């Protein structure tokens, strides 16, 4: 089947009534995903070429929530770009599944990082860590949230995840990350973020519980924003009818 026929195939041409722009597609959707991956790759390059004590520590840079979020975002956009190139509904579905976690997580990471940095940069940047220039800082702590939010708003169907699964996912990520950094600490003797050094165990429980709630709120805020931009599911049903 020639590409023109494949692109016009009903199963690929159809999209959710509320989805703003065509995706998967070899146009704007592919441009967004390719651009996002290029920015993410620039961030990874910085990790590989910049001397840093954490390079040789247990857990590598995956000790940072920022890099965990970036990795999930990279997986999501990789599926998205492959779906754009191949026009695969299955890869498109995988992109949407991954974005359920990656989009609100990136929003949470940006809010936490810039919020704590505004209070005191030493809460999130260790004294022994090499300084981040503004471009790399934005690649890690701004661009992923912007790219994932844009993808969710304009190139994805509406998320229908209910409240309890949202809370369960957010709690699993937050407390799973806590377990992970404690494991890394047992090997390395230091935490990736200085704020953890300042908190006793009960305070860390509060911090991670608050983070889980914040991620859930980010999910609901993104769902609300989607409905403001693209309309509600009820409107979509009426539109199809």
UniProtKB/TrEMBL annotation:
Q: Where in the cell is it found?
A: Endomembrane system
Q: Does the keyword Transmembrane helix apply?
A: yes
What coarse category fits the chief subcellular location reported for this protein?
A: membrane
TM ranges are 64-85, 97-115, 135-154, 161-181, 201-222
- InterPro entries named in the record: ADTRP_AIG1 (IPR006838)
Task: Note whether Membrane occurs among the keywords.
Answer: yes
Entry-linked PANTHER family: ANDROGEN-INDUCED PROTEIN 1-RELATED, AT02829P-RELATED
Instruction: Identify this protein by name.
Output: Integral membrane protein
Whose protein is this, by species? Trichodelitschia bisporula
């Amino acid at each position: 089947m020639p590409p023109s026929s494949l692109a016009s195939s009903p199963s690929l041409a159809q999209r959710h009534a509320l989805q703003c722009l065509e995706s998967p597609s070899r146009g704007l959707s592919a441009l967004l995903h390719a651009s996002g991956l290029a920015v993410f790759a620039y961030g990874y390059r910085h990790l590989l070429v910049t001397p840093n004590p954490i390079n040789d520590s247990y857990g590598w840079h995956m000790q940072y929530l920022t890099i965990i979020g970036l990795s999930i975002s990279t997986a999501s956009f990789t599926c998205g770009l492959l779906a754009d190139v191949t026009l695969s509904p299955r890869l498109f579905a995988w992109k949407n599944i991954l974005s359920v976690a990656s989009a609100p997580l990136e929003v949470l990471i940006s809010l936490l990082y810039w919020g704590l940095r505004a209070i005191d940069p030493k809460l999130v940047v260790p004294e022994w860590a090499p300084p981040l220039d503004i471009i790399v800082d934005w690649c890690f702590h701004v661009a992923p949230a912007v790219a994932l939010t844009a993808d969710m708003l304009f190139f994805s169907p509406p998320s229908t995840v209910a409240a309890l699964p949202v809370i369960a996912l957010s709690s699993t990520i937050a407390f799973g990350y806590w377990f992970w950094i404690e494991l890394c600490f047992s090997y390395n003797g230091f935490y990736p973020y200085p704020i953890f050094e300042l908190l006793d165990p009960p305070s860390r429980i509060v911090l991670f519980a608050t983070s889980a709630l914040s991620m859930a709120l980010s999910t609901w805020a993104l769902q609300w924003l989607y409905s403001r931009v693209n309309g509600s599911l009820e409107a979509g049903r009426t539109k199809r009818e």
